[in-house]
Design goal:
Low-confidence stretches of chain B: none
Helix content of chain B: 10-25%
Radius of gyration of chain A: 19 Å
Largest interface: A-B, 49 and 39 residues
Structural class of chain A: alpha/beta
Number of strands of chain A: 14
CATH class of the largest domain in chain A: Alpha Beta
CATH topology of the largest domain in chain A: Rossmann fold
Number of domains of chain A: 2
Helix content of chain A: 25-40%
Strand content of chain B: 35-45%
CATH architecture of the largest domain in chain A: 3-Layer(aba) Sandwich
Distance between the termini of chain B: 29 Å
Oligomer: heterodimer
Number of helices of chain A: 10
Mean pLDDT of chain A: 96
Strand order of the largest sheet of chain B: 1-2-3-4
Number of domains of chain B: 1
Shape of chain A: globular
Mean pLDDT of chain B: 92
Number of helices of chain B: 2
Order of helices and strands of chain A: HHHEEEHEHEHEEEEEEHEEHHHE
């Protein structure tokens, strides 16, 4: 789903993207797919709506009533095309609201637990950026890369063991962007980042006590491949950003990167095991991908398992748990899947 | 409200284990959490009827990265009604 008027404004000409979408639909033979603009007449005769998150969600719910259950939803465009929901921030931190796609994934008014798969392909103000992401496929390499801030090494190991060998997990410091080798990101199934991030800088940071070195800059990303997952604060923040000043868009602009999972706002995680918050969500996400589920189903199931685990542990979802469920988004084609086994 | 001696003991623990937060005075909040029926129902779980009381100690600090970017660092300590630590989390 997209918005014709806003998409046109973002990328000038929507014809090329529409052709790519039609090709995408033809290649996905296992799925019954419809492409709809929320602001144009449609075959379901649901009244078009303006570019407001709540209106677009209501439009989708009306479509669903006429067509049947929508199991997968792919939003085409960034916040200027299909706006993120601005939800009340459960945590007392620097975020006024939480940017979230969860309400699009939910069929009722509880937005924490998704009912359907929801992913987004940002536009980066470039039709070719969208087209490239619609045409991506995955080639298994059975290789993974991971990097963590030194202070979270133990916690990150508990996540990384799902996808790679612990001896390969890089630690920052001593690793910094100056020592970072672009080939570490090449020919991989998974890329995992447990680093600091901010809204204002494209860089991600390591940490050792009060030392916060730059661990990764966009310039370090050359021919990267695989599915990238980042726990960094604002790791998936794309508003008024481009591939030049946002790591997420730089990753998605790579030919070999077919998806990105990250947080739109300030995220949280434990200092050491057991995994909680962002660490736990990433861990479950990897587990489901390894089982062969699509990346979209993997994130949806990871959120459900995350909530169950938190309820079993404490009997409730606290502020951090709720924010984690709302803030993690998936960019890319949600129907892609891989089979990955950790190489011995 | 939570006893002062518990807060002091947690401050000592945080200073020792997370020296970057040494000297930071935490913001203490108390929260009563209801049964969260909707979430339980959506996950097809039996709904507990009780309320839980938790305390949250938030340590906040502004740091500078090596390239001079200002970053807010948050460390949260969550306690149960007995003052026992349930979890410690940090902003990423």
């Amino acid at each position: 789903m997209s918005g014709k008027k806003a998409l046109q404004k973002a990328i000038d000409d929507t014809n090329k993207v529409e052709k790519a979408v039609n090709f995408f639909i033809k290649t996905k033979r296992d799925y019954d797919i419809e492409f709809l603009y929320h602001d144009r007449p449609n075959k379901f005769k649901v009244k078009p709506v303006k570019r407001k998150a709540l209106s677009i969600r209501n439009f989708l719910l009306k479509i669903e009533k006429k067509w049947g259950d929508v199991d997968f939803l792919l939003l085409l465009g960034g916040d200027n095309v299909i706006p993120f929901f601005r939800l009340e921030n459960p945590c007392d931190d620097g975020d006024e609201t939480v940017l979230s796609d969860n309400p699009y994934a939910s069929k009722d008014d509880d937005f924490l637990i998704p009912d359907r798969v929801c992913a987004r392909i940002p536009d980066n103000q470039d039709a070719n950026f969208i087209i490239k992401l619609l045409r991506k496929s995955h080639k298994n390499t059975r290789q993974a890369f991971g990097i963590t801030a030194k202070v979270w090494r133990e916690a990150s190991e508990n996540v990384y063991r799902q996808i790679g060998n612990l001896k390969d997990l890089k630690v920052s410091p001593p690793i910094t962007s100056d020592k970072f080798k672009p080939q570490w990101l090449q020919n991989k199934d998974f890329l995992y980042f447990n680093l600091h991030g901010t809204k204002v800088s494209a860089n991600w940071y390591g940490q050792d006590n009060e030392d916060y070195p730059v661990a990764l800059r966009p310039q370090n990303i050359i021919d990267a491949s695989g599915l990238a997952t980042s726990e960094a604060c604002y790791g998936a923040y794309i508003i008024k950003k481009s591939h030049q000043d946002a790591m997420v868009l730089k990753f998605l602009s790579q030919d070999g990167i077919y998806g990105f999972c990250g947080s739109t706002t300030i995220s949280y995680g434990p200092v050491s095991p057991p995994s909680t918050e962002a660490d736990l969500l990433a861990k479950y996400f990897f587990e489901y991908i390894k089982q062969g589920l699509t990346i979209g189903e993997s994130l949806k199931n990871a959120k459900i398992d995350f909530a169950r685990k938190a309820l079993r542990r404490h009997g409730f979802l606290d502020d951090d748990d709720q924010k984690t469920l709302l803030q993690f988004v998936l960019y890319g084609d949600p129907t892609l899947r891989m089979r990955h086994r950790v190489k011995e | 409200m939570i006893e002062r001696k518990i807060i002091n003991s947690i401050k000592r623990k945080i200073s020792k284990e997370f020296p970057e937060f040494k000297g930071v005075e935490p913001k203490v909040t108390e929260k009563k959490i209801g049964p969260q029926d909707k979430i339980y129902r959506k996950l097809s779980l039996g709904v507990p009827k009780y309320f839980k009381q938790i305390y949250r100690l938030k340590f906040k600090k502004v740091v500078k990265t090596v390239d001079n970017i200002t970053m807010e660092r948050i460390l949260n300590v969550t306690l149960d009604d007995q003052g026992e630590i349930i979890k410690i989390t940090q902003s990423r």
